[in-house]
Amino acid sequence: MQDGGFLLSNSLPQAPHGPAFRTIPHRNRVLIVDDNYSVRQALIEIFKREADFDVCGEAGNGHEAIRVAQLLSPDLIVLDLAMPVMNGLDAARMLRRLMPAVPLIMYSGIGDRLVEQQARLIGIAALISKAEAPGTLVGKARVVLGQRAATP
After folding, report:
1. Can you tell me the distance from the alpha carbon of 124 to that of 103, in angstroms, rounded to the nearest whole number?
2. β-strand 126-129 against 104-108: which pairing, if any?
3. pTM for this one?
4. Chain segment 55-74, per-residue pLDDT in tens
5. Coil, strand or helix: which one is 76?
6. Using an 8 Å Cβ cutoff, are 85 and 59 in contact?
7. CB-CB contact of 145 with 50 (8 Å)
8. DSSP 3-state of 14
9. With left for phi above 0 and alpha for psi between -120 and 50, is residue 27 left, alpha or beta?
10. Which residues, 6 or more positions from 50, have their beta carbon under 8 angstroms from its beta carbon?
């Protein structure tokens, strides 16, 4: 029934449907930093399998990580501790100053109390051992990004 040029309907508005109107989930952009090519590739594959992550770049040392992070503006940076040129802690210090809103996860085979203490002081959101299952890293990445989203 039309009234004054408007179509009146008893039904509630419906969202468009069909393949063209499906919502695309937000994909968090991740930068992977590790000097070991095989580890980098494994991490890239792990994150690529997840619908809510997109690997936007990779770097082989801390210096490259800073340069690439500034170019790509990732949502999350996963970095190794022991790397040539610039280690993960030094890179994290710089990244925290340059990109304070971007969470950092230290993913390392080296772990001791001193490293853990330094990482916390720098502001690294999480430390994950390379000995842990890969799902642990992805799960922690979701938690860290969720905490960032909840922060005003």
Report:
1. 7
2. parallel
3. 0.79
4. 999 999 999 999 999 999 99
5. strand
6. no
7. no
8. coil
9. beta
10. 138
